[in-house]
Design brief:
Endonuclease III, domain 1; Nucleoside Triphosphate Pyrophosphohydrolase; 2 domains; adenine/guanine mispair binding; Adenine DNA glycosylase
């Protein structure tokens, strides 16, 4: 069995835990940001509506910055203020509102879960983190803990990226912070720390601290309300010869929470030595040919053909210009030929490769894909009959295109 973590990595002193809670909550009451989901949760008397409001915000905030989410959240809650309203919406409407927010499966799963609450749970949100995670698709351990603590007062901790950073610095946890053993330990810590009288506020305070003070680079340590509890700061202040036993010496090679011996403390980094993460895999490089097919509409305005992506996978269910993934390092002439063949299958009529006008390239970075779109244009004369057996497609004006559920990448195109 692996060695247990030494006490100095943990929060084992009840007096320290109580002091940390008090300092953090007092700071949060003074300094918390004014965010729409917090305001809504604070004034909403109905537990289910409060839970729904928090749930939407937590799903939107997954891997997306607060500043980006605010406008989307306000539009969403105005359009679908209740679970029941969302359950009655179409997936197309959800995708249209979500367009540009990224990670589109989040919106789809949110609506699926809302329909399940309405149809199978009599419109009543589960009240505990365990039931939220078990019963709602797309709700993981963190989201369940956030909803349960903020909306229903359950004394359960949360662990997200901000909390990981704060806890790793507070207790000099230098092992790979994405490893299951470290994540389990961080959850145990979060559950020890959470304030049972104000669990939602405490969890939000811990996340707020990571988002605004204990940031990845250049943290504002002197403004930190819990700096006196921070092992990483203490180590930085002590320099290379700390007068107290060094937390890094605690395990002598077998501590599951210390950095590996091959990655010793770097004094130039200070508290940003923590957390340590495994090296990221480089993004997959992809190249796609996409063609903007244009025709003259019945009122004289140009119209453009968009087609719907498959219902699963990347950008599931969104609309795009006809596109074709390409092998790397194709010559432009070969790209044109492959794209022409692809369009010919759509249109049921010959497409001459030389008729495709190369416009340029658009680069779009997904979280795990470095995508390059080779953009072509083709003007069509007369009507075109599209094969109904292929993916759904439609002609749209420029305004209709921007109102459709299209990705940010396609808007760049």
């Amino acid at each position: 069995a692996p060695a247990p973590p030494p006490a100095r990595h943990l929060f084992s002193d009840p007096a320290e835990v109580e002091a940390l809670r008090g300092n953090l909550l007092a700071w949060y009451d003074r300094c918390k940001r004014d965010l729409p989901w917090r305001a809504l949760a604070a004034i909403e008397p109905d537990a289910d509506r409060r839970g729904y409001a928090v749930w939407v915000s937590e799903i939107m905030l997954q891997q997306t910055q607060v500043a980006t989410v605010i406008d989307y959240y306000n539009r969403w809650m105005q359009k679908w203020p209740t679970l029941q309203a969302l359950a009655q919406a179409s997936l197309e409407e959800v995708n249209e509102l979500w367009a540009g927010l990224g990670y589109y499966s989040r919106g789809k799963r949110l609506q699926e879960a809302a329909r399940k609450v309405v149809s199978e749970l009599a419109g009543r949100m589960p009240r505990t983190a365990e039931d939220l995670q078990k019963l709602l698709p797309g709700v993981g351990r963190y989201t369940a803990g956030a909803i349960a603590s903020i909306s229903y007062g359950q004394a359960t901790g949360v662990v997200d990226g901000n909390v990981i950073r704060v806890l790793c610095r507070l207790r000099c946890i230098g092992a790979d912070s994405s490893s299951p053993a470290v994540i389990d330990q961080l959850w145990d810590m979060a559950n020890v720390l959470v304030d049972s009288s104000r669990p939602g506020d405490f969890n939000q305070a811990l996340m707020e601290l990571g988002a605004t003070v204990c940031v990845p680079k250049a943290p504002l340590c002197e403004e930190c309300p819990v700096k006196q509890h921070c092992q990483a700061r203490r180590r930085k202040l002590c320099g290379n010869s700390p007068p107290v036993p060094d937390v890094e010496d605690c395990g002598v090679g077998d501590c599951p929470l210390c950095p590996p011996a091959s990655e010793p403390w770097d004094s130039s980094l200070g508290v940003t030595n923590f957390p340590r993460k495994a090296a990221k895999k480089p993004p997959r490089v992809m190249r796609t040919a996409t063609c903007v097919l244009e025709r003259r509409g019945c009122h004289g305005a140009p119209e453009y053909l968009i087609v719907q992506r498959p219902s699963s996978g990347l950008l599931a269910g969104l609309w795009e210009f006809p596109s074709l993934p390409l092998a790397q390092n194709l010559q432009e002439e070969k790209e044109r030929e492959e794209l022409a063949d692809h369009l010919q299958a759509w249109m049921g009529q010959p497409v001459v490769a030389k008729g495709l006008q190369f416009i340029g390239e658009v680069i779009h970075i997904f979280s795990h894909i470095h995508q390059t779109y080779a953009v072509y244009s083709l003007h069509l004369d007369g009507d075109v009959t599209l094969d109904p057996a292929l993916s759904p497609s439609r002609w749209v004006t420029e305004d209709e295109f921007h109102a459709s559920a299209v990705s940010t990448a396609m808007k760049k195109v």
